[in-house]
Design brief:
This protein is α+β, with helices and mostly antiparallel strands and 224 residues long. 42% of the residues lie in helices and 21% in strands. It has 2 domains: 94 residues, Nuclear Transport Factor 2, Chain: A (Roll), CATH 3.10.450; 124 residues, no CATH class. A hairpin with a 2-residue loop joins strand 1 and strand 2.
Length: 224
């Protein structure tokens, strides 16, 4: 179910159809108000050029003729600084329905950041404390190291095993879409489940910057 302000739609296709018809059926020059404005206000942040379209802020939505297509009506955002810009809702929501794999993985990483930081604090209990990188042999301090998931329980493996335990695929893990300030899991229940699984099964280690660089290169080569 897709919710845009006071209205709900079964699919993004249905939502886009509503937005397009809204534009076509409004009188030329009309200011969009009431429920229709609330829908537009909810849809606009999902536009791929949201920040560019909004500028310093939205004053109102007005139906005008498109400058490049005189026979076509479209919604214009009139901004608080008295500038305006045309907005098309033809592709709204497509970025949400096609969230990339890397964004979902990033959201899962964000969910366990506190565990990573706690581990780092444990490994460097005092200023000047050093640990040896198991890959390069370098002595590292808290300020020049990285925390890594030791194999075989790499981050990718942990995610795969957790998804199996939950009966999910990565594509079914919903995250907050742009323009949310950071990638974040939508479900509080899944967030807690993932954190608990990560806390129980992860085997963290301290690596030097060079050691971490090597691991990252190997993972990218292997598609992890």
């Amino acid at each position: 179910m897709i919710t845009l302000g006071p209205k709900s739609f079964a699919t993004w296709t249905e939502a886009r159809r509503y937005l397009v018809e809204l534009t076509r059926t409004q009188p030329l020059g009309a200011t969009i108000e009431g429920e229709a404005r609330e829908v537009l206000e909810a849809a606009l942040p999902l536009h791929s050029e949201y920040e560019l379209k909004v500028g310093p802020g939205v004053y109102r939505f007005v139906v005008k003729r498109h400058p490049a297509y005189p026979n076509t009506q479209c919604v214009f955002v009139e901004r608080v600084d008295q500038t305006s810009v045309a907005v098309s809702f033809q592709n709204i929501g497509k970025a949400v329905s096609q969230v990339k794999r890397k964004d979902r993985l990033r959201a899962l990483r964000e969910a366990v950041v506190s565990q990573i930081l706690d581990f780092k604090d444990t490994m460097f209990p005092e200023d000047g404390w050093e640990n040896q990188c198991p890959l390069t042999g370098e002595l590292v301090t808290k300020s020049n190291c990285e925390v890594d998931h030791a194999p075989p329980w790499t981050f990718a493996q942990l995610v795969e095993d957790w998804l199996k335990a939950e009966g999910l695929t990565l594509e079914e893990v919903e995250i907050h879409p742009p323009p949310h300030p950071k990638c974040e899991l939508r479900s509080a229940i899944l967030t807690e489940s993932w954190r608990a699984y990560h806390a129980e099964h992860s085997a963290l280690r301290i690596l030097s910057l060079e050691g971490h660089k090597r691991v990252t290169a190997e993972n990218q080569k292997g598609g992890a």
